[in-house]
Amino acid sequence: MLTGSATWDYRDARHERFGRTHFRRYGDGLVSSLGLGTYLGEPTDDVDEAYREAIGLALESGCNVVDTAINYRCQRSERVVGHAVAESDVGREAVLVATKGGFLPFEGERPDDPGRFVREEYVEPGLVDRDDLVMGSHCIAPDFLDDQLDRSRANLETDPDLYYVHNPETQLRERSREEVYDRLEEAFVRLEERASDGDLGGYGVATWEAFRVPQDHDAYLSLPEVVDRARAAADRARTGGTHFRAIQLPFNVSMADAFTVEAHETPDGEKSALEFAADAGLAVFTSASIAQGTLADRLPEAVAARLGGETPAGRAINFARSAPGVTASLVGMQSIEHVRENLEACEEDPMGAAAFDEVFE
């Protein structure tokens, strides 16, 4: 798993190429402010090979954050991440590998009858209780996450540095908010135990809506409450301190809610997700940094004028990297051309805090 000393060595060998704060603190080490995501693409051998080449180049060139999930591309993304990291000349201890569990994954390809697959693979063997299954596809029960973590470790051929509970707001489709918090705490107890056993470096929550929407939104979850539940889980697991390390949420020019929506109550007043995470010492990894490609062609002129970068995609990446409290911005990169272009953007300095604030004035 990741070590501080290895990441400092990684930074020392590559930092001169990049702009200010490309490498940022994570624990006692450093990670790149650009991360490689593996969500997009069909579950095919050709896409596997493209990702393998892209990950290899990214690791060599100054991107040491790789993000995936067991359900991405029917488990193929995890497997190609594992192969690429193992094949790289960059040592495993210099790379932050993150994955997620919560959505029931298919095996290699999408089955003709997904419902039958779920029933035969998960429900009938007892891996998932029907009462724990939401929307026929999502589960955060501790025993299920145990199974998924072990599958992810096998797919990745390594223990993940970060293991996220994936989109827990999905549970709100069929459960009360309080019940979801209770279920999250039970999941966290199990992840605390697995972290204490050395099977993962830390854990967190990866969301799409939960932390960036107003309190009256159906998908809202309180980040302070989630953090409190993680602390309670650590006490119950007697791990001597929580292993809750990070959150993941969307952030880009057109989805800036994590900075602008003050929905999280604290003794000092309501705060945005980014502000609360910074105060709580949590790392923040942003997804959809170029809105899955929709910002690759154009940005609002008023924003683009303030950002360095040769292309709209590069400027969009630099906007996401400039948000206060962001550790790394994730971008899907299926080709070596995308890796080169996106890392070139990181040669520019991010916006300063004052300039970033002015965008929203």
From TrEMBL:
Segments forming domain NADP-dependent oxidoreductase: 34-350
Top-level taxon in the UniProt lineage: Archaea
Cross-referenced PANTHER family: D-THREO-ALDOSE 1-DEHYDROGENASE, NADP-DEPENDENT OXIDOREDUCTASE DOMAIN-CONTAINING PROTEIN
UniProt protein name: Aldo/keto reductase
